[in-house]
């Protein structure tokens, strides 16, 4: 690696150039997709999918897809090192645990009692 | 004494240290916003029908702000790419656009979106007097259709009781609207004065509560009407303008968007730091351009995360 | 000055810390970026808070044994310091100063818990020992982000100022428990005409936000340092167990604290901006409180978010202690610890499981059978890795050539004390048993056994063990013996009767020690006096330690670089280590506990070549 350093210092290696240039198209494509999907989300909010929970699920699916694009392409998670993925998977598991177990506790009260906030 | 792996990656992990550091920080931020979102879900699912409002936020403005943030995500990654390719001027241009987009986002939020809420007022009537106010709430009609009841009479406050902390807001509202009020409306305001009660310039949903148009959230900002209604002081459960104390919906909305806004501000400040000709900013480009590229990449990762949070905030609060 | 060949080309480093010799006093000792200075800063601050928390508890124990009586000797002084919310002003006017009020008892109770956990144990066991020892043990010149490290300490320091300052505002400090449950915590300390900001509970929330932020920044630093700055040859399975323990602890702090920060912000807005995150509908509050709420909130939501942190927090309290004990046991038995690999897997399993057991603190909130069974199952499961850790350490003693220096005395005592603490937790894991034991002194006895004769003894062990490296002098041996034996006897006398009281039904947070319910619990009330006397004795036996800690800096017997003949890298530095830590090349060639290797001339082989 050491012979590359003066190059990186002044010019950036050729690998970096090509890397950045090819990704430029991907960044623009993802940016456009995100804008389109935002409009699509607003459009979908006008359609009633049967129940409020179904509406919410549809909205969340689109949002999750948009978020994955940002994470994978803009944040370079696609092709990122194993260490980072390990942290994120653990974090996701714990975040899901926080959501699900809290809701489970709320949704499974002692028979005859209620957990409504009003 | 030098700390190794600040700029070049450690061979076995393949990472330089600040990238590892920022991802760890972002993991904790996922848990922070996750805690807030789980609170939102908990409170929304537990709320009594009629007390979780819909359609109160301006969707076109929210959509525009979302687009601004997405654009800034694109420009920041181009700024980083420009640094990696050693194109300094291009970096400065893209970074400047990113900063401006961030500032625009905050300006829209703080000069329009939030103040617009503070001007809006809602009175929750007691359930015992539901029939008396059915002409404003339309609950008999909603019940037939199997929809959630309404308990709030909302709009712009024109008169508040003597003891209310909102007298000033009422005076301001009346002053603003006076010229647009017709005779009937003015009479209602006088009635409220004499009864020491609330007079509200109604939103369309309360002016015509049985209309099918008012059953789902609106695309355009909540329509106003020209009708004024009087709500007796004794019939009021609680009343406030659209601030965090108004309902758990607004409490979560203001807290999450406020915290998100603080993160946007933090990101903007860091980007400005990397844009200015100071030792930690563009002067670093001459000494060690790779180091500056890494810094911009790391700050960019934070910025993308902020964008990511907004991608969830927007549908959850504006559309659902 | 850490020299290693595999990396560090000219452009690799940041230029932040090049010119150490040109720094002012402030830059070298106050606003330092050196991990050792920061470690000592955390250590001294944390020990001071442990002392403060202890003093608060002594006043509480006096009240429990002698309800309504004035605190002897220092009653007047305390009354002057803490004022009329904490001590009875009417009685003082009648000539008796220093009688604790119910609000005062609650204040001391809430602050004792908060201070001990967040301002005492974690800063000392995790931040102080971690900052000082971890970079040395992995062969690094400093932490990964030295400036961030300094920022973490000063953020923590701000939180300390806020917490201590909260004692001196009009309403006195927070009095709603270290658990700060709403709706009480949402309305507390807000008399009519009072300030929404300058009151005990609001300041508690602000202090916690700063404390949590400092902790998060510190955790990022620890994890990045352990991953990125290990010296050449220091593979993962050659790490001293203390480093593994700190690594997992840092993860617990990183991922579990943020929901509490979120909840803290929510409670803050409930109090100051009138939101109703946790304020239920129809709350009837006296007009005195200067705030109104719309309702619609959920008090149980706070409990979920609070315990999501607070359960992993208890593992944050114990893991660094287990790590320190492991180092000291290996060193003083002249043997590798038993089951190093199992211990590493166990500590990861423990860390993972600790995130999904929290609602065992909430069995009384009306959860149904399904969810209660889930948490019961995970709680029982988590006892398995805990037992693996403790058993490995106990088995490590077998066949060892044990040297009972003061560090080893405390480390050895840790083992059965943590055993009692852990085993008494098992009944609490069961929903059905917890119905009876929840909120009783049994719980207090359980967790104090783990933290007090557990973690705090491990902290003492760590001090006796690493003091010679940090200062170049030994602590006085005789004073250490007195400290140890006195503390061991007194601490058991203080905490063991709590199990008896708890099982008889004595509840927590009764400001009069149960005197009101004497008819039911008379047989166990007599223990109050015994426990209070033990607490006072425990306080007295800390005096030799405090004196020893400060005087040995000047008067202690001089120590060489490796007085304990230890194998790990922190003993390879000059004493005390200079900025940059190592003056020789570090190349790790063996595991951390190569003691008594057959065929070798010395009974230990250092990790370094």
Explain how this protein is built.
- The complex is a heterotrimer of chains A (118), B (320) and C (609).
- By secondary structure, chain A is mainly α.
- Chain A folds into 2 domains: 2-78; 81-118.
- Chain A contains 4 helices and no strands.
- Chain A has helices spanning 5-10, 14-44, 52-74, 82-107.
- In chain A, helix 2 (14-44) runs antiparallel to helix 3 (52-74).
- The termini of chain A are far apart.
- The mean pLDDT of chain B is 91.
- Chain B starts with 16 loop residues before the first helix and ends with a helix.
- Chain B has 11 helices and 5 strands; from the N terminus they run αααβααβααβαββααα.
- Chain B is an alpha+beta fold and 320 residues long.
- Chain B folds into 2 domains: 18-118 and 247-319, Up-down Bundle (Four Helix Bundle (Hemerythrin (Met), subunit A)); 121-241, no CATH class.
- In chain B, helix 2 (59-84) packs antiparallel against helix 11 (289-319), helix 3 packs antiparallel against helix 9 and helix 9 (248-275) packs antiparallel against helix 11 (289-319).
- Chain B is elongated.
- Chain C is mainly alpha-helical and 609 residues long.
- Chain C has one domain: Cytochrome C Oxidase, Chain A.
- In chain C, helix 2 (35-65) runs parallel beside helix 6 and helix 5 runs antiparallel to helix 9 (241-272).
- Chain C starts with 24 loop residues before the first helix and ends in a 54-residue tail after the last helix.
- Chains in contact: A-B, A-C, B-C.
- Chains B and C meet through helix 1 and helix 9 of B and helix 8, helix 9 and helix 10 of C.
What's the layout of helices and strands?
The complex is a heterotrimer of chains A (118), B (320) and C (609).
Chain A (H helix, E strand, L loop, with lengths): L4 H6 L3 H31 L7 H23 L7 H26 L11
Helix pairs in contact in A: 2-3
Chain B lengths: L16 H30 L12 H26 L3 H31 L2 E5 L8 H4 L1 H7 L6 E8 L7 H11 L5 H13 L2 E6 H4 L16 E8 L4 E6 L6 H28 L7 H5 L1 H31 L1
Antiparallel strand pairs in B: 1-2, 1-5, 2-3, 3-4
Chain C lengths: L24 H6 L4 H31 L9 H12 L2 H5 L8 H36 L8 H20 L18 H4 L12 H29 L12 H32 L26 H35 L6 H14 L15 H27 L10 H24 L1 H7 L3 H31 L5 H28 L13 H8 L1 H29 L54
Features:
heterotrimer, A: 118 residues, mainly alpha, 2 domains, flat, disordered N terminus, C: 609 residues, Cytochrome C Oxidase, Chain A, 62% helix, 0% strand, globular
In short:
The complex is a heterotrimer of chains A (118), B (320) and C (609). By secondary structure, chain A is mainly α. In chain A, 73% of the residues lie in helices and 0% in strands.
């Amino acid at each position: 690696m050491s012979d590359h350093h003066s190059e990186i210092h002044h010019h950036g290696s050729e690998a970096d150039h090509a890397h950045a240039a090819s990704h430029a198209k991907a960044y623009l494509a993802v940016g456009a997709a995100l804008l389109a999907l935002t409009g699509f989300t607003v459009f979908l909010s006008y359609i009633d999918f049967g129940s409020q929970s179904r509406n919410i699920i549809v909205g969340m699916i689109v949002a999750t897809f948009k978020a994955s694009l940002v994470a994978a392409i803009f944040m370079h998670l696609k092709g990122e090192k194993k260490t980072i993925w390990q942290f994120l998977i653990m974090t996701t598991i714990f975040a899901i645990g926080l959501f699900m177990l809290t809701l489970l506790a709320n949704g499974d009260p002692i028979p005859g009692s209620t957990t409504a906030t009003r | 004494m030098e700390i190794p792996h600040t700029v070049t990656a450690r061979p076995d992990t393949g990472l330089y240290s600040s990238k590892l550091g920022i991802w760890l920080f972002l993991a904790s931020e996922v848990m922070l916003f996750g805690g807030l979102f789980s609170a939102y879900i908990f409170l929304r699912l537990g709320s009594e029908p009629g007390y979780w409002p819909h359609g109160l936020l301006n969707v076109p403005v929210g959509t525009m702000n979302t687009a601004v943030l997405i654009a800034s995500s694109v420009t920041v990654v181009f700024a980083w790419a420009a640094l990696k390719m050693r194109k300094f001027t291009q970096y400065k241009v893209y970074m400047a656009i990113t900063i401006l987009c961030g500032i625009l986002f905050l300006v829209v939020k703080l000069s329009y979106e939030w103040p617009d809420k503070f001007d809006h007022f809602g009175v929750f009537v007691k359930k015992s007097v539901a029939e008396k106010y059915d002409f404003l709430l339309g609950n008999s009609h909603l019940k037939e259709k199997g929809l959630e009841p309404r308990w709030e009479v909302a709009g712009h406050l024109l008169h508040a009781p003597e003891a209310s902390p909102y007298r000033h807001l009422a005076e301001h509202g009346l002053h603003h609207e006076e010229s647009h009020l017709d005779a009937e409306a003015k009479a209602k305001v006088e009635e409220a004065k004499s009864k020491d009660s609330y007079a509200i310039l109604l939103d369309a949903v309360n002016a015509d509560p049985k209309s099918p148009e008012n059953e789902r959230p609106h695309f355009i900002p909540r329509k106003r009407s020209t009708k004024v209604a009087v709500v007796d002081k004794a019939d009021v459960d609680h009343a406030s303008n659209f601030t965090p104390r108004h309902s758990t919906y607004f409490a979560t909305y203001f807290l999450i968007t406020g915290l998100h806004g603080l993160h946007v501000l933090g990101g903007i400040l860091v980007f400005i730091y990397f844009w200015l000709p100071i030792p930690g900013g563009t002067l670093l480009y001459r000494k060690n351009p790779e180091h500056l590229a890494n810094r911009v990449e790391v700050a960019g990762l934070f910025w993308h995360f902020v964008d990511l949070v907004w991608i969830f905030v927007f549908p959850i609060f504006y559309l659902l | 000055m850490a020299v290693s060949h595999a990396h560090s080309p000219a452009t690799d480093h940041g230029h932040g810390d090049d010119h150490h010799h040109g720094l002012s006093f402030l830059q070298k000792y106050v606003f330092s970026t050196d991990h050792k200075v920061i470690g000592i800063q955390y250590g001294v601050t944390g020990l001071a808070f442990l002392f403060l928390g202890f003093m608060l508890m002594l006043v509480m124990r006096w009240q429990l044994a002698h309800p309504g009586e004035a605190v002897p000797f220092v009653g007047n002084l305390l009354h002057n310091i803490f004022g009329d919310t904490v001590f009875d002003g009417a009685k003082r006017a009648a000539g008796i100063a220093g009688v604790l009020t119910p609000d005062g008892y609650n204040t001391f109770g809430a602050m004792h818990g908060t201070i001990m956990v967040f301002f005492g144990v974690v800063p000392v066991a995790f931040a102080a020992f971690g900052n000082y020892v971890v970079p040395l043990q992995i062969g690094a010149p400093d932490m990964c982000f030295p400036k961030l490290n300094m920022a973490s300490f000063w953020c923590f320091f701000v939180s300390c100022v806020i917490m201590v300052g909260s004692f001196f505002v009009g309403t006195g400090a927070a009095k709603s428990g270290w658990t700060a449950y709403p709706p009480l915590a949402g309305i507390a300390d807000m008399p009519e005409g009072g300030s929404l900001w300058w009151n005990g509970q609001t300041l508690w929330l602000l202090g916690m936000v700063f404390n949590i932020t400092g902790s998060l920044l510190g955790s990022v630093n620890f994890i990045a340092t352990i991953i990125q700055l290990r010296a050449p040859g220091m593979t993962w399975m050659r790490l001293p167990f203390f480093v593994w323990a700190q690594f997992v602890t840092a993860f617990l702090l990183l991922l579990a604290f943020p929901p509490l920060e979120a909840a803290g912000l929510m409670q803050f807005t409930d109090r100051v901006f009138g939101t109703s995150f946790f304020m239920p509908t129809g709350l009837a509050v006296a007009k005195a409180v200067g705030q109104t709420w719309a309702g619609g909130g959920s008090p149980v939501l706070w409990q979920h978010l609070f315990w999501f942190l607070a359960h992993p927090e208890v593992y944050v309290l114990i893991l660094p202690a287990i790590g320190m004990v492991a180092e000291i046991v290996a060193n003083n038995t002249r043997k590798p610890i038993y089951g190093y690999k199992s211990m590493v897997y166990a500590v990861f399993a423990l860390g993972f499981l600790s995130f999904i057991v929290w609602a065992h603190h909430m069995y009384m909130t009306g959860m149904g059978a399904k969810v209660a069974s889930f948490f019961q199952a995970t709680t029982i499961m988590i006892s398995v890795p805990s037992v693996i850790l403790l058993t490995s350490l106990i088995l490590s003693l077998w066949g060892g050539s044990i040297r009972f220096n003061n560090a080893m005395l405390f480390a050895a005592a840790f083992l059965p004390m943590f055993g009692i603490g852990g085993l008494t937790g098992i009944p609490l894991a069961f929903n059905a048993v917890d119905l009876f034991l929840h909120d009783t002194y049994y719980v207090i006895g359980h967790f104090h056994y783990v933290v007090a004769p557990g973690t705090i003894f491990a902290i003492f062990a760590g001090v006796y063990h690493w003091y010679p490296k940090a200062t170049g002098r030994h602590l006085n041996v005789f004073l250490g013996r007195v400290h140890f034996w006195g503390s061991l006897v007194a601490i058991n006398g203080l905490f063991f009767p709590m199990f008896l009281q708890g099982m008889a039904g004595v509840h927590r947070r009764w400001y009069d020690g149960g005197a009101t319910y004497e008819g039911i619990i008379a047989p166990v009330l007599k223990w109050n006096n015994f426990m209070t006397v033990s607490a006072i004795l425990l306080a007295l036996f800390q005096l030799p330690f405090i004196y020893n800690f400060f005087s040995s800096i000047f008067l202690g017997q001089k120590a060489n670089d490796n007085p304990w003949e230890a194998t790990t890298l922190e003993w390879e530095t000059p004493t005390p280590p200079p900025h940059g830590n190592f003056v020789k090349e570090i190349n790790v060639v063996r595991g951390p506990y190569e003691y008594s290797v057959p065929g070798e001339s010395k009974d230990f082989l250092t990790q370094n070549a």
